[in-house]
Amino acid sequence: MNGSLYIQPGLWEMVWGAGMMVKFVLLVLLLFSIFSWAIIAYKIILLKKIEKETTAFYDLFWDKRQFSQIAAMSKDFKSTPLVNLFGSVYAELSNMIKAAEQSGTRVQRDELERLERILKKAKAIETAKIEYAVGFLATTGNTAPFIGLFGTVWGIMASFRSIGAKGAANLAVVAPGISEALVATAMGLLAAIPAVMGYNHLLTRIGRITTEMNNFSSDLINIIEKQISKKPGS
């Protein structure tokens, strides 16, 4: 090798020796990766708490059956969305019962449709809360490889311009610039792969919680319907 040895630079040396555009791309990808890991960690902790409280509140719901008792004890559950679903329906049902008692009538079965609409809106709100920021993981997974590829293409273009300026095209001249450029592609994949895995994992767990909300809503409406059919103002 012309009496000399070419020493392979480390990762940091390659990043430091890259052009400004490649450095900017690497910075963007680093931020994507940091935010993605932060979202994944936060959501895993949050979903674990939600799942635990959802199971506990479901047990309380079937154990007590009395809505007034459930409403009083629901204050101990801060994370599960089932509490907000129950609270929205309980508040409206209480108003219906009061109105029926004042008018000397009973809660009508067709008023269940209003409760169902309230539950549907509450479910949409709670689902949006749980899914907040998860979409960033999908964005990272879809765009990070292409951002890294852009950095690589730009770096290779800079390398070829350097080759043209120097008038030399041997491996010693080409290899450093290309290796520096390829770091951008590696960083893009490093940001995208955990983001995609985290997104799929979180989406699966959120789907289970959404199913729990749907089941709870159906159970709640069924119980209210049975109580209405038994006696006035129940």
Structure notes:
With 234 residues, the protein is mainly α. It has one domain. The protein contains 7 helices and no strands. Helix 5 (112-131) packs antiparallel against helix 7 (171-230) and helix 6 packs antiparallel against helix 7. The longest helix has 60 residues, at 171-230. The relative contact order is 0.17.
For the terminal residues, how far apart are their CA atoms?
92 Å
Structural class: mainly alpha
Tally of separate helices: 7
How many structural domains?
1
Q: What integer is the average pLDDT?
A: 84
Order of helices and strands: HHHHHHH
Shape: rod-shaped
Strand residue percentage: under 5%
Fraction of residues in helix? over 70%
State the assembly state of the protein chains. Answer: single chain
| Main pleated sheet | none
Question: From the alpha-carbon coordinates, what is the Rg to the nearest angstrom?
Answer: 29 Å
Low-confidence stretches: 1-8
Number of strands: 0
Please specify the SSE layout and strand pairing.
Elements: H1 11-17, H2 20-64, H3 67-73, H4 81-103, H5 112-131, H6 135-166, H7 171-230
Helix pairs in contact: 1-7, 2-6, 2-7, 4-5, 4-7, 5-7, 6-7
Put the structure in a nutshell.
The chain has 234 residues and is mainly alpha-helical.
Can you give keywords for this protein?
234 residues, 0% strand, mainly alpha
